[in-house]
Amino acid sequence: MARAAVPGRLGDRLRWRIAEVAGRRVESATAVTLTLEIPDWPGHLAGQHVDVRLTAEDGYSTQRSYSIASASNGRSLDLTVQRTSGGEVSPYLVDELVPGDQLELRGPVGGWFVWRQQQTEPVLLVAGGSGLVPLMCMIRTREAAGSRTPFRLLYAVRSPSDLLYGSELRQGAPGLDTTYLYSREALKDSARPPGRITPEDLARGGWPPDFEPTCYVCGPTAFVEKTAAYLVLLGHAPERVRTERFG
């Protein structure tokens, strides 16, 4: 029987656990998904993240936060990590970590940027690059629960080669509409030329404001701030626009 997908007590969620890498899947030239086995994992909500800590032999340690990619009803945990140029943690996770290795993590963390299965209003997901990861957790959780809540995804990425979860998104899920927005290099038959996200993109691929959707926007800070401002400009209520940013 799967664990209940709810966060545990605060003290339990904030303690460090040992996770073992059970699998490694390449998502793109710069990103991998790590499947982690955590015997006493308390469960998570769609959209939450964990803190990962690495400790060197000399005792030096550092930590970073990574969004959870797997559905909230799973027994294992998927983290999709994109290598950051000059980064201290992501190059190790992407290039060196292999099945059987261990690392420390704590969580789940977060209670605002989450989607709960009890929600019935339409959902608009807007992702910039690896900002897709927590939104993919929402998509997978919805599908696993058999929810009929209508989802629309606008996925902004530099080029087709940078797509995460490409084959899974192409297969689609009932009630999920996906629009790709390429900023630097588009497919040859793409009707939209390469460029940054615009209000027209959001109006065309999103929900009308009078549908009162909940909007989740995740990506680099500049992308998130601009997209959130566009949504409000289009008439979406600010309290229905939830954001998470990085960088």
Automatic annotation (TrEMBL):
Cofactor: FAD
CDD domains the UniProt entry points to: FNR_iron_sulfur_binding_3
InterPro entries: Cbr1-like_FAD-bd_dom, FAD-bd_FR_type, FNR_nucleotide-bd, MRET, OxRdtase_FAD/NAD-bd, Riboflavin_synthase-like_b-brl
Superkingdom of this protein's organism: Bacteria
Occurrences of domain FAD-binding FR-type (ranges): 14-115
A Pfam match: NAD_binding_1
Keyword Metal-binding: yes
Keyword annotations from UniProtKB, A to Z: 2Fe-2S, Iron, Iron-sulfur, Metal-binding
SUPFAM superfamilies: Ferredoxin reductase-like, C-terminal NADP-linked domain (SSF52343), Riboflavin synthase domain-like (SSF63380)
Protein name per Swiss-Prot or TrEMBL: Ferredoxin reductase
Organism annotation: Streptomyces lanatus
